[in-house]
Automatic annotation (TrEMBL), chain A:
<dbReference type="InterPro" id="IPR005475">
    <property type="entry name" value="Transketolase-like_Pyr-bd"/>
</dbReference>
<keyword id="KW-0560">Oxidoreductase</keyword>
<protein>
    <submittedName>
        <fullName>Pyruvate dehydrogenase complex E1 component subunit beta</fullName>
    </submittedName>
</protein>
<keyword id="KW-0786">Thiamine pyrophosphate</keyword>
<keyword id="KW-0670">Pyruvate</keyword>
<dbReference type="InterPro" id="IPR029061">
    <property type="entry name" value="THDP-binding"/>
</dbReference>
<dbReference type="Pfam" id="PF02779">
    <property type="entry name" value="Transket_pyr"/>
</dbReference>
From TrEMBL, chain B:
<comment type="subunit">
    <text>Forms a 24-polypeptide structural core with octahedral symmetry.</text>
</comment>
<dbReference type="Pfam" id="PF02817">
    <property type="entry name" value="E3_binding"/>
</dbReference>
<dbReference type="GO" id="GO:0016407">
    <property type="term" value="F:acetyltransferase activity"/>
</dbReference>
<keyword id="KW-0450">Lipoyl</keyword>
<keyword id="KW-0012">Acyltransferase</keyword>
<dbReference type="GO" id="GO:0005737">
    <property type="term" value="C:cytoplasm"/>
</dbReference>
<keyword id="KW-0808">Transferase</keyword>
TrEMBL record, chain C:
<protein>
    <submittedName>
        <fullName>Acyl carrier protein</fullName>
    </submittedName>
</protein>
<feature type="domain" description="Carrier">
    <location>
        <begin position="4"/>
        <end position="78"/>
    </location>
</feature>
<dbReference type="InterPro" id="IPR036736">
    <property type="entry name" value="ACP-like_sf"/>
</dbReference>
<dbReference type="InterPro" id="IPR009081">
    <property type="entry name" value="PP-bd_ACP"/>
</dbReference>
Length: 335, 379, 78
């Protein structure tokens, strides 16, 4: 037993707990790191990510703010320029629109406008996505909008491992980094490999290899897509599932290498189709790998409506496993 | 209930051996599907079906050798039975699942499949699509032509001695039955070569054209204007062809000869004909021809190429009624505006069946080929 | 591409076009088209395959330089 005592044991952990451990470790490791946002300290976060952290780490490091996104995001930008490493938590991407001016006009541009004199090493995390019957004002997936903006990095951890390890490289990055956590992922549990202590924030990952079709997705849709791949296997179709992980800059090399092998592509995104991230990926594949394609590109995205409140309508509006299976099957089998 | 019978793949075929069934009882088949492989004196040939329906019974098992006309399999729900001489499989019509407009006549093919077909010289008109909305996919192209290096193993059943016998039988019959007349015309090929040189200069090697493609196009257009020479002599009378289906004589490495059809050659643009030539040569030499290609030709062309003789006097392949020969292009003195100059010239010859046509019509055909080649820029 | 690689490539391509030929005894200076009985389509396929494998553009005017094995190897390993 003594020999194994020094070997870290694999540990089952929820995505929520992984987010919390990441914040806790970053704050303990670096005195410049602190977290602020609405209801993060005394209440413990609207998704309970920071529950208990204020008691442990102190309200200097886990700070409640007034209900003003434009105010506390701006304060975070100032703190980052002044040498701190702030983590700003915005309750949901829907509310981040109140801070768009700070994020897009200030955080993303200051390094450029100052001729490189001021970096903004800021991390902003927020929840995104639908599925919890929170209705249209709390359920949209607007990360694709942020992926439009030069000067920002945009991350979408889908796995417990990424939730645990993406924060540190985001804090180390001199650019403002946005981290999007899908609301349906917080309760997912997975075994964390103790031998993995860091991940990159550069590359997409193949979560399941396959030779017949490439399914590209990220965030909350990853698990529906993996389920679809399992269903397709029963049809004899080997689907390759790519988790983008990083929405800006996109790791198109991984996507294109996969499409060059499978020659078919389905993009799964909870964002809407029009003017979207899925549109961008499809365009880049057509621009850079047109002659690799053996079938049209298909997209499985949210219906073009504000996400409904009623459970059955909400589910009908979102990309679902059956639709992913049907799209993939149509491209491989020629339905 | 319809019977699927051993087809006749030319006048010289009496029997064939079934070497492979590509369908099983219960399979649904449609017009143009390859359902079996039959060994003949011309090697193993893929046999297409011309009915739709359900295969209810396989009558002749693999290994069976049976005369032409023997029932090989039975179909249920089959309609529109028509023995050989039917058009080749067209890509299936696109089902109305997509809002994409379907351009008539333009095959639906994926970008990757189009690139592969071009690289391998595959004529996409001959590839049946199985992809989304009936599109031709990479797998469909590969099914027609495996990767170089993965050349199909020589099919079972090609026996050079048997092919020699088949050629002997057909040619003897021709010389015994057909009263040939021969005509020859010497043609200035400079306009044709100038066009090729100009086109090829701007193209990578896989897209370049051979003079054969231009000769084929000029010949096909001229034949279309001379219907008396395009068709077959059967039961004591001439029956015109249902299109200009040019049999292209291909010498096999190691001896032997086949002349599969390029269908509707008069209606196909130059690049398309070149692709068809490459495709046919490749498949003829790897013994992957289809039944309709062997039974369809309405006239045959033999082009000797740049290592051949100056001129050829062809022997008509029965039951056809004409054959055109194209000699080697040679530089010879030529009179241009009253003075002598060197010109690339080519002897184009015709053998005609005097039962079906007279020499005058044949002469018009050669003159028309000459005229078209002088206007090669418009071909 | 060095001469050894060029020769391997030429042999590989030729062995697909003329599978029955014994390339080991092909004289370097002999006219390949005569020696291997390559017609104009075979020769175009030979040039096309070399182009596809090396991306070397081979204009028609240069075809005669590739008529012999030695010539083809020299052309590709320029």
């Amino acid at each position: 037993m003594s020999a194994s005592a020094s070997v870290p044991m694999p540990q089952a952990m929820t995505y929520r707990e992984a987010c919390k451990q990441a914040i806790r470790a970053a704050i303990i490791a670096d005195p410049r790191v602190f977290l602020m946002g609405e209801d993060v300290a005394r209440y413990g976060g609207c998704y309970a990510v920071t529950k208990g952290l204020a008691g442990e780490l102190g309200e200097e490091r886990i700070r409640d703010t007034p209900l003003s996104e434009v105010g506390f995001v701006g304060a975070g930008i100032g703190a980052a320029i002044a040498g701190m490493r702030p983590i700003i938590e915005i309750m949901t991407v829907n509310f981040s629109l109140l801070a768009l001016d700070q994020i897009v006009n200030n955080a993303a541009t200051i390094a450029h406008m100052s001729g490189g004199q001021f970096a903004v090493p800021l991390v902003i995390s927020m929840s995104t996505g639908a599925g919890r019957q929170l209705a249209a004002q709390h359920s949209h997936s607007l990360e694709g909008w942020y992926a439009h903006i030069p000067g920002l990095k945009v991350l979408a951890p889908a796995t417990v491992e990424d939730a645990r390890h993406m924060l540190q490289p985001a804090l180390d990055d001199p650019n403002p980094v946005l981290i999007f956590e899908h609301v349906m992922l917080y309760n997912r549990e997975d075994v964390l490999d103790p031998n993995v202590t860091e991940v990159d924030i550069v590359s997409a990952k193949i979560r399941r290899p396959g030779r017949d079709i490439t399914l590209v997705t990220y965030g909350g849709s990853l698990f529906k897509t993996l389920e679809a791949a399992t269903a397709l296997q029963q049809d004899g179709i080997e689907a390759e599932v790519i988790d983008l992980r990083v929405l800006r800059p996109l790791d198109m090399a991984t996507v294109i290498a996969s499409v060059a092998r499978t020659r078919r592509l389905v993009i799964v995104d909870e964002g809407w189709k029009s003017g979207s991230l899925s549109a961008e990926i499809a365009t880049r594949v057509v621009e850079e790998a047109f002659f690799e394609l053996d079938a049209p590109i298909r997209r499985v995205c949210a219906r073009e409506v504000p996400i409904p409140y009623a459970a059955h309508l909400e589910q009908a509006a979102l990309p679902q496993t059956a639709a992913i299976v049907a799209a993939a099957r149509g491209l491989v089998r020629g339905a | 209930m319809t019977d699927f019978r051993m087809p006749s793949l030319g006048a010289d075929m009496e029997a064939g051996t079934l070497v492979e069934w590509r369908v099983k009882p219960g399979a649904t088949v449609k017009r143009g599907d390859v359902v079996a492989v039959v060994e003949t004196q011309k090697g193993a040939i893929e046999i297409e079906i011309f009915n739709e329906g359900l295969v209810s019974e396989i009558v002749v098992p693999v290994g069976g050798r049976v005369p032409v006309g023997t029932v090989l399999a039975r179909l249920e729900g089959a309609a529109g039975a028509r023995e050989p001489a039917a058009p080749p499989p067209l890509p299936p019509p696109a089902p109305p699942v997509s809002a994409l407009p379907v351009t008539p006549g333009r095959p639906r093919i994926s970008p990757a499949a189009r690139r592969l077909a071009a690289a391998r010289g595959i004529d996409i008109q001959r590839v049946a699509g199985t992809g989304p909305a009936g599109a031709i996919t990479v797998a469909d192209v590969e099914a027609v032509s495996p990767a170089p290096g993965a050349m199909p193993p020589q099919r079972p059943g090609f026996d050079p001695a048997a092919m020699r016998q088949a050629i002997a039988a057909a040619m003897s019959r021709s010389k015994r039955e057909i009263p040939h007349y021969y005509l020859s015309q010497t043609v200035d090929a400079s306009a044709a070569l100038a066009r090729l040189e100009r086109m090829n200069r701007e193209r990578p090697p896989p897209e370049r054209l051979l003079p054969a493609a231009l000769f084929l196009r000029a010949t096909a257009l001229a034949v279309a204007k001379t219907p008396e020479l395009n068709g077959v002599w059967e039961d004591g009378r001439f029956r015109p062809g249902d299109g200009v289906h040019i049999g292209w004589a291909i010498a096999l490495r190691g001896g032997g000869l086949v002349a599969p059809a390029i269908r509707n050659a008069d209606r196909r643009p130059l690049d398309d004909l070149m692709a068809a030539l490459r495709d046919l040569v490749l498949r003829a030499r790897s013994f992957a021809l289809r039944s309709s290609e062997l039974s369809d030709p309405t006239i045959t062309v033999t082009s000797l190429g740049d290592r051949g003789a100056d001129a050829v006097l062809p022997i008509i392949y029965p039951p056809q009624v004409a054959m055109i020969g194209i000699g080697r292009i040679v530089t010879r003195p030529w009179v241009i505006d009253g003075t002598l100059g060197p010109r690339p010239i080519v002897a184009i010859t015709l053998a005609g069946d005097h039962r079906a046509s007279d020499g005058h019509r044949g002469g018009l055909l050669l003159a028309e080929i000459d005229r078209l080649l002088q206007e090669a820029e418009t071909l | 591409m060095n001469a050894a690689e060029a020769k391997r490539l030429v042999f590989d391509v030729l062995s697909r076009i003329a599978p029955e030929a014994d390339l080991a005894v092909l004289p370097g200076a002999a006219h390949m088209r005569e020696e291997l009985d390559l017609d104009s389509m075979d020769f175009l396929n030979f040039i096309s395959a070399l182009h596809e494998r090396t991306r070397v553009d081979i204009p028609e005017a240069d075809y005669p330089k590739l008529f012999t094995l030695d010539g083809a190897v020299a052309y590709l390993s320029r």
